[in-house]
Design a protein that fits this description.
Belongs to the RNA methyltransferase RsmE family. It is built from six helices and eleven strands. The chain is α/β, with parallel strands linked by helices and 237 residues long. The strands form two sheets. The protein has a six-stranded parallel beta sheet, sandwiched between helices. Strands 1-3-4-5-2 form a five-stranded mixed beta sheet. α2 runs parallel beside α6.
Length: 237
């Protein structure tokens, strides 16, 4: 069954679906009056029936709320910008896995740079990728892609109860040991394709990030992201 995020609940317990979702329902998947869909509103999922199809919008009637188990651990994924195709992959797959925020960072060894005139359009596009992945994976929340961090000190705004950075050249303790602790929010840092500079690791440690390794093999940035997130979810759920 298809899922759609909605922004408004009418006084008659009905949802109005318009714009891109209206087009998708009417012209792509071609649903009809009476067919069932899920509507997600304020992090809650509702089973709905399509009541009316108008020229520019659809009215969906609530049948009942669908109870679900929320993921308890909130994950902030902090990652150095990488090439567009791989970056899009990270956005999509980390959304499917359950990340709450994705924070792109300009590290010294990033192999890509973004034209500042195009930055806001890119952030809009990145959030649209997350929205699409959230629909596909039937999440009840959409992760936010935040503004690009250019100064590492800005990461203090994204600290969790546990803060870890994956670094192949040093490790304080294994990831498994850190995940034995109790926490509700975790922030994890993955470096860019060119790796971290030593000065950046020192700065991250001063901010409160603990250094861990992700095994003997050197992982690509996109692989490290998914491995890191998957391990957290596996260990804590």
């Amino acid at each position: 069954m298809f899922s759609f995020f909605v922004n408004e609940l009418s006084m008659q317990n009905k949802f109005i679906i318009e714009n891109k979702d209206f087009h998708h329902i009417v012209n792509v998947i071609k649903l009809k009056i009476g067919e069932k869909i899920f509507c997600i509103y304020n992090n809650k999922k509702y089973l709905c029936s399509i009541e009316t199809i108008e020229k520019n919008y659809i009215i969906a009637n609530i049948i009942n709320e669908v109870l679900h188990n929320n993921q308890q651990i909130k994950i902030n994924l902090i990652v150095g910008l990488i090439r567009e195709q791989k970056w899009d992959y990270i956005l999509q797959k980390s959304t499917e896995l359950g990340v709450d925020k994705i924070i792109p960072v300009e590290f010294k060894r990033n192999v890509v740079t973004i034209d500042q005139r195009k930055l806001q359009n890119k952030i809009t596009r990145w959030n649209e990728i997350c929205l699409s992945a959230a629909k596909q994976s039937k999440r009840v929340s959409i992760p936010k892609v935040c503004e690009v961090v250019k100064n590492l000190d800005e990461l203090k705004n994204y600290l969790g109860e546990l803060n870890l950075v994956a670094y192949e050249n040093n490790k304080d303790m294994s990831l498994k040991e850190y995940l034995k602790s109790e926490f509700n929010t975790i922030s994890i840092v993955i470096g860019p394709e060119g790796g971290f500079e030593t000065k950046e690791i020192s700065q991250l440690k001063k901010l409160g990030f603990n250094i861990i390794g992700l095994g003997q093999n050197i992982l690509r940035a996109e692989t490290a992201c998914l491995y890191f997130v998957s391990t957290i979810i596996y260990e804590k759920t």
